[in-house]
Automatic annotation (TrEMBL):
InterPro entries assigned to the protein according to its UniProt record, in alphabetical order: Methyltransf_16, SAM-dependent_MTases_sf
Origin superkingdom: Eukaryota
An individual GO BP term: methylation
GO molecular function, one term: methyltransferase activity
Signal sequence coordinates: none
Protein name: S-adenosyl-L-methionine-dependent methyltransferases superfamily protein
Gene3D superfamilies named in the record: Vaccinia Virus protein VP39
Keywords associated with the record: Methyltransferase, Transferase
Length: 227
């Protein structure tokens, strides 16, 4: 399910309104807004350390973006990166494949008045190690939402996540089952590389707790644990 067929999506993050233009008639899924990006942003907003007292916040350390670097994979229209930027992740690179870059850059420009700056972008095909290295990893946060839908891209995606995230960093994943084959392979391969934590559904933002969408936290397994 796409979030809506509307040509524009509005998302409020704190007191700032983002307006994301989408093209549902495009040949590329990245030019539409998909639900998991919204779910991920609103989860972070709910538990943001500046909004939720540390004593009551199980994610206070996880979501402390001070002096942290991030990269989004398969950013599409850029919703997750823009939302997390507004929540304090101020050093973030927004990536996708070449055909999606015009829509991504258009939306970043469209929201520049809200963002107060232009976010950094880079073309990235997950299997291209040269492009991955050019991003200058490691990153404290790797962000991905609604990126598991083709079986043939699962292995490159997981390798990209592994190469980009710091040993003590995390992958923030917004996930919805799109393809049973891709789903099965993704979770089988993830278990070899990452410790996986699923956010309880009741911890999602109550207005963005879609039944089909989940948020996961991935952390790299220690090398001795893998061997």
């Amino acid at each position: 399910m796409k979030f809506t067929q509307s040509p524009a999506i509005e998302l409020c993050v704190h007191d700032t309104r983002l307006s994301i233009q989408q093209d549902n008639g495009s040949m590329h899924v990245g030019t539409s807004v998909w639900p998991c990006s919204l779910v991920l942003v609103k989860f972070v907003e709910r538990w943001h350390p500046l909004r939720c007292a540390a004593a009551d916040n199980p994610y206070a350390d996880l979501l402390n973006f001070t002096n942290k670097r991030g990269v989004e994979l398969g950013a599409g229209c850029g919703v997750a990166s823009m939302g997390l930027y507004l929540l304090g992740l101020h050093d973030v690179v927004v990536t996708d494949i070449a055909p999606v870059m015009p829509a991504l850059k258009h939306n970043l420009k469209r929201n520049k008045p809200a963002l107060k700056k232009s976010l950094k972008t880079a073309q990235l095909y997950w299997g291209n190690e040269e492009q991955t290295n050019s991003l200058k990893p490691p990153f404290d946060f790797v962000i991905a939402a609604d990126v598991v839908y083709l079986e043939e891209t699962v292995a490159p995606l997981i390798r990209a996540m592994e190469r980009l995230v710091a040993d003590d960093g995390v992958v923030l994943l917004g996930y919805q089952l799109r393809s049973p084959e891709a789903h099965e392979l993704f979770w089988a391969m993830c278990g070899d590389v990452f410790e996986v934590e699923k956010i309880p559904h009741e911890h999602l933002h109550p207005e963005y707790a879609y039944e089909e969408a989940d948020v996961y936290i991935f952390r790299k397994k220690r090398k001795e644990a893998i061997s």
